[in-house]
Specification:
Layout lengths: L6 E3 L6 E3 L4 E10 L9 E10 L1 H7 L1 H16 L1
Antiparallel strand pairs: 1-2, 3-4
């Protein structure tokens, strides 16, 4: 359906953007207690962040995504 794309909120500025125009960036976040013992707790989580075009451009996410796609294409050959 044309014109009926759902709106998502930019995680940086709060702007409402159509889902097809939003930039989705997956970011890894890790937490640990750094106790260096047997009871050391480590937790790793991947978070999906959605940005509007202007925030993604400002944060340099397009360059990261481009670099990631170039690395993938090199691995395939």
């Amino acid at each position: 359906m044309r014109g009926k794309e759902t709106l998502v909120t930019c995680d940086s500025c709060g702007r409402k953007v159509p889902r097809n125009k939003a930039v989705v960036y997956e970011k890894g976040v890790g937490y640990n207690t750094e106790l260096k013992t047997a009871n050391d707790v480590r937790f790793f989580q991947r978070m999906k962040m959605t940005y509007c075009i202007s925030c993604a451009k400002h944060r340099g996410i397009f360059e990261r995504l481009k670099r990631r796609s170039i690395e993938r294409s090199k691995r395939e050959y």
